C-alpha cells in the first residue's frame, strides 16, 4: 500500500515511484516465492494491490518524466543544431595547395575540432535518450531501473554537450580575439557562458537526486532509531 508517511526524502513523482518499486522488489525478495501467488480475503494478489494503490502516483510520475524529457530534448536539439553547424565550419579556411586547414598547426584549432565533435555526439545521444523516454509505455516495472537510468544518461550527455559547446565556442573565437582583443577575451567568454551555465546549475539538483535514488539499492531511513 502507498502510505503518506515516508521517512525518506525523494523529490519528484517519478523518483517516488522508483522508490516504491524498490521497496516492492525488496520485500518480494525477502519473502518466500509462494507468498506472492496467494490471494487475500478479497481475492487479490499483492501485485494487484500494489498496482491499484500506486495508479495515481504512476500517472504523476509519467507526466513528470514527460515534461522533463520534453524540456531537455528542446535544449538538446538546439545544441545539436549549433554543434553541427560548428563542426561543419573550419576556422581559417583551407589551404588551396594541399587542402588542409590553414590553422591545423594551432592547438586551439585541435581543441575546437575535438570539442565540437564531442558536443555534436553528446547532444544527439541525449536527444535519443529523451525521445526514448517520451515514447515509453510508463509501466510500473519501467520506473524501477529503465526510465531513471535513461533520464540519468540523457542528462549526463546533455551536460557534456553543453560543456563541449562552450569550449568549442571559446576555442573558435580565440583566433578572432587573440590579437586586438586578447585582454578582453576571458571576460567575453565568461559573460557568454553565463546563460547556459545557469541552466546546467539549475539542473544539477535534479541530477544528483536522480543519481542518488537510482544507485541506492537498499531502502534506508533518513533518521536514526533510538533504542
From TrEMBL:
Keywords: Membrane, Transmembrane, Transmembrane helix. The chain crosses the membrane at residues 64-88, 108-131, 151-176, 188-215. It holds the Pfam family PGG. It comes from the Eukaryota. Signal peptide: none annotated. InterPro entries: PGG_dom. Residues 63-175 form the PGG domain. GO terms for cellular component: membrane. PANTHER family: CASKIN (PTHR24177), PGG DOMAIN-CONTAINING PROTEIN (PTHR24177:SF103). This is PGG domain-containing protein. It comes from Vitis vinifera.
Amino acid at each position: 500500500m502507498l502510505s503518506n508517511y515516508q521517512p525518506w526524502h525523494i523529490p519528484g513523482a517519478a523518483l517516488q515511484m522508483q522508490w516504491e518499486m524498490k521497496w516492492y522488489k525488496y520485500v518480494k525478495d525477502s519473502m518466500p516465492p509462494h507468498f506472492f501467488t496467494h490471494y487475500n480475503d478479497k481475492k487479490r494478489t499483492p501485485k494487484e494491490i500494489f498496482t491499484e494503490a500506486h495508479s495515481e502516483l504512476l500517472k504523476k510520475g509519467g507526466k513528470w518524466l514527460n515534461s522533463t524529457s520534453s524540456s531537455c530534448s528542446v535544449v538538446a536539439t538546439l545544441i545539436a543544431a549549433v554543434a553541427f553547424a560548428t563542426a561543419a565550419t573550419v576556422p581559417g579556411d583551407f589551404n588551396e595547395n594541399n587542402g588542409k586547414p590553414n590553422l591545423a598547426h594551432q592547438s586551439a584549432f585541435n581543441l575546437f575540432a575535438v570539442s565540437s565533435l564531442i558536443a555534436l555526439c553528446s547532444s544527439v545521444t541525449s536527444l535519443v535518450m529523451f525521445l526514448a523516454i517520451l515514447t515509453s509505455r510508463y509501466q510500473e516495472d519501467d520506473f524501477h531501473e529503465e526510465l531513471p537510468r535513461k533520464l540519468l544518461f540523457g542528462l549526463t550527455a546533455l551536460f557534456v554537450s553543453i560543456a563541449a559547446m562552450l569550449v568549442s565556442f571559446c576555442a573558435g573565437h580565440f583566433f578572432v580575439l587573440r590579437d586586438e582583443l586578447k585582454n578582453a577575451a576571458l571576460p567575453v567568454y565568461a559573460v557568454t557562458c553565463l546563460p547556459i551555465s545557469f541552466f546546467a546549475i539549475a539542473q544539477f539538483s535534479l541530477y544528483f537526486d536522480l543519481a542518488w535514488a537510482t544507485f541506492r539499492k537498499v531502502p534506508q531511513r533518513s533518521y536514526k532509531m533510538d533504542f
